[in-house]
Amino acid sequence: MSIEHVVILGIAAIPFIYYFLAIFGTLKFFTHSKRRPPDQSVFTPPVSCLKPIRGLAEDEYENYASFCRQNYPEYEILFCVDEDDPGLPVLKRLMQEYPHVQIRLVFGPDHVAINDKVARLDRLSKEARYDVWVLTDGDVRVTPDYLRSVVAPLQNPKIGGVTCFYSATTETNFTEKLQELGMMCDFYPGILVAWLLDGVKFGFGQTIVTTRARVQGFGGFQAIENRPADDLLVCRFIAEAGFEVELLPYVVRTTPDFHSTKDLLYKRLRWMTVMRHMRPWGHLGLIFTFGLPWSLLAFLIVPSAATALFYLGGYFLCRVLMTWLVGVYGLKQSGLWTKMILIPIWDATAFFIWLASFTCRSIRWRGIDYTLRDGMLTLATPERARSTSPQPES
Hints:
The protein is of the alpha/beta class and 394 residues long. The chain contains 15 helices and eleven strands. Helix content is 48%, strand content 16%. The strands form two sheets. An eight-stranded mixed β-sheet has the order 3-2-1-4-7-6-8-5, with helices on both faces. Strands 9-10-11 form a three-stranded antiparallel β-sheet.
């Protein structure tokens, strides 16, 4: 065996280091979570639930109604919506059927920004009665214990933000099954490696819990209204201010919006492109987390039974174990075993999307093109934007 082959085999083994970190991090996170006694705190400060709305999402009524069924003493739900939004009748129906819940409508942001969602959050923050804020996307559906569960960590003054896991409400087609598998075998293991090595300096738009003081501490929502990945930035800035961000082993549900494989690929590419611009070196380093192409390369270089067993067999075993630990042991997801065979398909897809992200200089959201420069969003076609309200993905 030549020295070149030895070097390639050594590099091809690097993803296993990442896999072992993911396995260890997942075990540590969920084992520690299971050992903690259930929170019996009576810490229930008044809460403002902030929802920047634009457009009608699938199962929108049921998602919003789930927030009206909270086992929580005092809270309000604020929607920022346009006066001609197609979802407005749904919100008015909600107010009629849940008169005991404080539901308020705020019409439109009070200024124009590149990231319309954040401009709406800024308007909602000015209207919020209470100082504890729960930020959620429109596709989120929760159970009655939600507010008690996600607000409780704030009783620790060291904690400035809270976020949690999410999974799909249903899986009706192959694309939705593949997306859900990707969350359990790829996205969440990476998140738990980040938690293990660097703590939580991120948040998910499906749930971010913080306070007025923490948001004002980094300049308010206007400080991030021209930037992508606002949910990540909120929690990153809270962490940079010296406060802890807690990732809860709690799962909310989201209604899937992938109607085709093209939708999934396009959204994944958009997200990867944003990450490349926000974390260029970290994004480049992902090359050492893709076990499938490296294992195939090792087998092509040294085509033997031992190579196949160690690299290809080891790759699949590690990936199955990671997926089981996150999805079954940790998040209690059912039906995951039937999708394990799709792991190599997801990994191959994710690898080629990662490669494609290096060719993208812009992203498109709701028919509008944006370029990313120095971590900032700019309109690629300003003349088109005059007639269309932009809302980049969070």
